[in-house]
Structure formats: structure tokens, C-alpha cells
Specification:
333 residues, mainly alpha, globular
């Protein structure tokens, strides 16, 4: 396997076939939905003592802001918003379901789009891309990853429970047994964590081939698992080198993105904070200032970062699709 040629080809595909960007951006938008926000139900009252000792600019009316916030918190009645809370939960569930569907359709469209480019020399249109992604193979891919994910999670919990089992010796009224329990738990915990890291690396490669066996090879779940394992084992050295190269590219990408992120973050803070302060100056209301400034800041931050992340998702998917094609159809590469 010519790894440098494969990576260069993936880069050229990402650069020249812009229709794939749409699906990469959709993957970037929906693949990171694990972040969850939410309060813990406690309340906190700001007062002037919280701000003492800080060199705030004199033109910031922090005392009035804290008073407004306290007044709003005192008059807030959660029981009045039960219906709104239930509606928000329903909307969130619908949003999560839609995000899962979009993510899998976009991933399948990326795989089949790159496969079509390599097979015919022409890229699908965005409409054809959605048709390629909306298929029974995509539903099968979701089911496979759900099953594998649940099995891996259960196995990981069992191993961690096994590693923690010596701690039962702490119930004994014996100092020697307690020391042995702690030492054994630490040793077993480290071994289990190392094993889980190795398993995660193995599954990161196997998962790429299982997905493409279903989406591109149109195999069933059992056949895809078997074929993917066989192919990875047969070309383990080549695919191991590719994984290392892609991991290095991941690290390099994150390093390059740090200054970009902070630059965009500063721009978002300046624009959103400026607009928020302007709203406060006009309406003399801190909640309205936050309600206007914060969404604008998040939007300014999200748009460029999602676009760049989408391009990178396109590149990574292209590289693994090219690797799959070379392993399964070496004569066509």
C-alpha cells in the first residue's frame, strides 16, 4: 500500500469535489452531539462581594447587573414552565433523532460518493448524494454500530467491575487485606485501561471496514463483521501504518486549529459582547443582553469551525474509503 499516494489522493478528492463538503459538514454538525448542558437545580445570588478584588473597568455596571439577576432569580417560578419544559424535551428528542439520521445518511453518502468518483471518475450531485445515503445499507450500518457499541460498553463495564472487585476486601477489618485490595485494584485497573485503549484502536480500524462492507459491499451485519475482520487481519501491517499516519494527521490538525479557534473565539466575543452591551445600554436588561449576545457569539464561533471540521471529515472518510478499495479491489487501484 502506497500510503503517501493514498493520502494525497484523499486530499485531492477533498479539494476538487466540493459536493462532498456538504456531507462532511453534516457529519461534523451531528457527530459531536455528546455535549450536554443543564443546571443542577441550585440557585446562586450574586452580590457586590463576589466582585471585590477584581479590576473590572469602571464603565461596566456590574452592581446593577447583579441586582437585575437577583431580581429575576427571585421571581422565577419553575412550576409556570412545566409545559414549556416538556415541549423542550420533546423537541430535543426529535432533534437528536434527526441528527442521528442525518449523520448516518451523510456518512454513507461520503463513502458511496468517493467510491463512485474512483469507479467512474465523476462525482454525484448533492441530490444523488442524498439518494446514495438514504438506503437500507445505512439503516443496517446504524444497527451494526448500535449492537457493537452496546456489546463493547457491557464488556468494558464488566472488566472495570472485575478490576474493582478486590476492593471488596476493604470490608474486612484487616489492614493487610486493605493494602492488598488497593494494590490489586490499581494494577488491574491500569491493565484494564490499557486493554481498553488497545481495543479502541483495533475497533477504530475494524469499524471503518465494517461500515464500508455494509455500505459499499452491501453485506449483512454478520457477513460484514466477518469480512471486515478478515480484510484487516490480512493487511494488518499496511492498515496499522495508515492508522498511525491518520493519528499523526489528527494531532497536527488539532495543533493547527488552536490559533484559528482562539482567533475566531476572540472575534465572536468582541462581536457578541459588543452587541450584548449595546442591547443592555438600550433596554437596561441583563437577561436580554445575554439572550442577544450569547447566541450571536456561538453562531460566529460555530460557522467557521464547523466548515473546517467538515472538510477534515471529508478527507478522513475519503482516505479510509480509498484504503478499503485498495484492500478489497487491489487490481482496480
Amino acid at each position: 500500500m502506497n500510503h503517501s499516494a493514498l493520502i494525497k489522493r484523499a486530499f485531492r478528492i477533498t479539494k476538487h469535489y466540493r459536493v462532498l463538503w456538504l456531507f462532511g459538514i453534516l457529519v461534523a454538525l451531528t457527530a459531536g452531539g455528546g455535549a450536554s448542558g443543564g443546571g443542577n437545580g441550585s440557585s446562586y445570588n450574586f452580590n457586590e462581594t463576589d466582585l471585590q478584588g477584581r479590576n473590572w473597568p469602571e464603565w461596566l455596571p456590574l452592581d446593577r447587573w447583579s441586582q437585575q439577576w437577583n431580581q429575576w432569580a427571585e421571581h422565577f417560578d419553575p412550576s409556570r414552565y412545566v409545559g414549556l419544559f416538556v415541549a423542550c424535551c420533546c423537541l430535543l428528542a426529535i432533534f437528536v433523532l434527526a441528527a442521528v439520521i442525518v449523520q448516518y445518511v451523510a456518512r454513507a453518502a461520503l463513502m458511496r460518493g468517493v467510491d463512485q468518483i474512483e469507479a467512474t471518475g465523476s462525482a454525484p450531485t448533492w441530490r444523488e448524494g442524498f439518494r446514495l445515503g438514504w438506503s437500507r445499507q445505512t439503516a443496517r450500518l446504524w444497527l451494526l454500530e448500535l449492537i457493537v457499541g452496546l456489546l463493547v460498553m457491557l464488556a468494558s463495564l464488566l472488566l472495570l467491575a472485575l478490576a474493582a472487585s478486590p476492593l471488596l476486601l476493604l470490608l474486612l477489618q484487616n489492614e493487610t487485606a486493605k493494602v492488598i485490595a488497593i494494590i490489586l485494584s490499581v494494577i488491574l485497573g491500569v491493565l484494564v485501561l490499557l486493554f481498553l485503549v488497545l481495543v479502541a484502536i483495533a475497533f477504530s480500524v475494524l469499524g471503518q471496514f465494517w461500515a464500508r462492507e455494509i455500505v459499499l459491499g452491501d453485506r449483512g451485519i454478520g457477513a460484514a463483521l466477518t469480512a471486515g475482520y478478515t480484510e484487516v487481519r490480512r493487511r494488518l501491517r499496511d492498515l496499522g501504518v495508515l492508522w498511525l499516519l491518520m493519528a499523526g494527521i489528527d494531532i497536527g490538525f488539532m495543533i493547527l486549529m488552536l490559533p484559528v479557534f482562539f482567533l475566531v473565539l476572540a472575534l465572536a466575543g468582541l462581536v457578541g459582547g459588543g452587541l450584548g452591551y449595546a442591547v443592555y445600554a438600550l433596554a437596561n436588561s441583563l437577561p436580554w443582553a445575554i439572550g442577544v449576545g450569547l447566541p450571536i457569539s456561538l453562531l460566529i464561533l460555530a460557522i467557521p469551525m464547523t466548515f473546517i471540521s467538515g472538510l477534515y471529515q471529508t478527507f478522513k472518510s475519503s482516505a479510509w474509503t480509498l484504503a478499503y478499495r485498495e484492500v478489497v479491489h487491489p487490481a482496480k487501484m
